[in-house]
């Protein structure tokens, strides 16, 4: 037996990992002449040598056998698949299986891909500004304004009424509305606020106060808001306000005469248009403006005490305790005609508009009213606190409060 045959018989089989087992001591101890015989056999085309041609050369005795590199494993695997494909036809993967594999392979990149696609499709701010959609294009001068428009206080209103601690029925009524009127250049903010304090037995005061706010609100909406929505012209606001209150007076007077009642009510109307307030007033409900320098009373009481104050015969601080403070000489519904006070009041630097019945201002001083308006942010919270304080002070009458926060002027 030749040395080559002995060498092949002494070779260990491949391991399960495909790594050739190391040669034994006999093989490693081969003489140079024997190694030359192996080389000659390779060159002569010996089949046995060709079978072993792919085996790695034996490592020296003093070195440990090295593992095949990944590149070598990849080469071996490729050769193995090529040999197998020649013997057994490879199964063709189905399109569905390929799709599932592709979906799994791409699942980790879906979110990132969609985000990149959306970012590419979304227009930039500069593109949005220049879009030709019929809107006025923004210029560089508009950018500081967009960042600077910040209001510490906006236009908002709160309204609340309470029966108080003495009366069994609430004869006060109120109405509160904030909207905007369309204009050619820009819309105009509008607010309509009404307080009515009814009087008369057998629910007559409750009916009268409700009729007053209903009639005035309908009149203003019909004569001011509806024409503005139809691009119509609106008459001057002074005759509008006076006409609304006078119509309420006629409606209550006619109803009272038909049922034989002496019902009546106060009525204070505040129409907020832009930076001014237009007020129509009959009775002793009040309208105030809260300013940085204090609370300013806009209306005058149509009462005996109010008249004495106007004549300078009574100090305003004494009005709340005067025995005739509830005696009114001008009301709505108790005469066929009534004179209506009209007041035009610019807002200026005022922060709040306050409307209240005598159940509110008769229980609380101006300093308390001002304090509540200053330390409450939301107008509805201010209404709750005002009524709570009026009840703590006695709650002798029905209590009504409307608080309007006025926007800061830029």
Keywords, separated by commas or semicolons:
410 residues, alpha+beta, 2 domains, six-stranded antiparallel beta sheet, five-stranded antiparallel beta sheet
Architecture overview:
This protein has 410 residues and is of the alpha+beta class. It folds into 2 domains: 3-84, no CATH class; 156-405, PPM-type phosphatase domain (Phosphatase 2c, domain 1, 4-Layer Sandwich). The protein is built from 15 helices and 11 strands. The chain has helices at residues 3-10, 25-28, 32-44, 47-51, 70-87, 95-106, 110-121, 125-129, 142-148, 204-229, 237-259, 304-310, 358-361, 366-375, 379-392; strands at residues 156-162, 172-181, 188-199, 264-265, 267-273, 276-282, 286-291, 294-297, 341-346, 352-356, 399-405. The strands form 2 sheets. Strands 2, 3, 4, 5, 6 and 9 form a 6-stranded antiparallel sheet that branches. Helix 10 runs antiparallel to helix 11 (237-259). The chain is elongated, with a radius of gyration of 48 Å.
């Amino acid at each position: 037996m030749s040395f080559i045959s002995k060498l092949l018989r002494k070779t260990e089989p491949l391991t399960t990992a495909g790594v050739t087992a190391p040669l034994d001591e006999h093989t490693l101890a081969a003489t140079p002449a024997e190694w030359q015989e192996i080389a000659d056999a390779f060159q002569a085309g010996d089949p046995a040598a060709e079978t072993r041609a792919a085996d790695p050369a034996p490592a020296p005795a003093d070195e440990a056998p090295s593992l095949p590199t990944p590149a070598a494993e990849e080469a071996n695997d490729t050769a193995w698949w090529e040999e197998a494909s020649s013997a057994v036809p490879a199964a063709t993967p189905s399109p569905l299986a390929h799709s599932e594999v592709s979906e799994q392979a791409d699942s980790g990149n879906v979110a990132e891909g969609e985000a990149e696609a959306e970012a590419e499709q979304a227009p930039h701010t500069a593109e949005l500004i220049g879009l030709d959609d019929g809107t006025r294009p923004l210029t560089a001068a508009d950018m500081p304004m967009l960042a600077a428009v910040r209001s510490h206080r906006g236009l908002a209103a709160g309204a609340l009424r309470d029966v108080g601690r003495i009366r069994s029925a609430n004869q006060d009524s109120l109405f509160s509305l904030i909207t905007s009127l369309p204009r050619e250049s820009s819309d105009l903010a509008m607010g309509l606020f009404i307080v009515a304090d009814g009087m008369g037995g057998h629910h007559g005061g409750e009916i009268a106060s409700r009729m007053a706010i209903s009639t005035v609100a309908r009149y203003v909406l019909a004569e001011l808001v509806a024409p503005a929505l139809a691009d119509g012209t609106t008459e001057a606001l002074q005759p509008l306000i006076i006409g609304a209150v006078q119509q309420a007076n006629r409606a209550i007077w006619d109803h009272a005469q038909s049922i034989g009642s002496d019902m009546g009510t106060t009525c204070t109307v505040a129409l907020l248009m832009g930076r001014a307030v237009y007020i129509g007033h009959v009775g002793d409900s009040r309208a105030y403006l809260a300013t940085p320098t204090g609370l300013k009373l806009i209306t005058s009481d149509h009462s005996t005490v109010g008249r004495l104050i106007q004549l300078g015969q009574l100090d305003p601080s004494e009005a709340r305790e005067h025995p005739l403070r509830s005696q009114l000489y001008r009301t709505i519904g108790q005469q066929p005609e009534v004179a209506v006070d009209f007041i035009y009041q610019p807002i200026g630097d005022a922060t709040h508009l306050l409307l209240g019945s005598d159940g509110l201002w008769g229980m609380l001083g101006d300093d308390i009213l001002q304090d509540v308006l200053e330390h409450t942010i939301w107008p509805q919270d201010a209404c709750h606190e005002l009524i709570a304080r009026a009840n703590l002070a006695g709650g002798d009458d029905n209590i009504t409060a409307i608080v309007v926060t006025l926007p800061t002027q830029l």
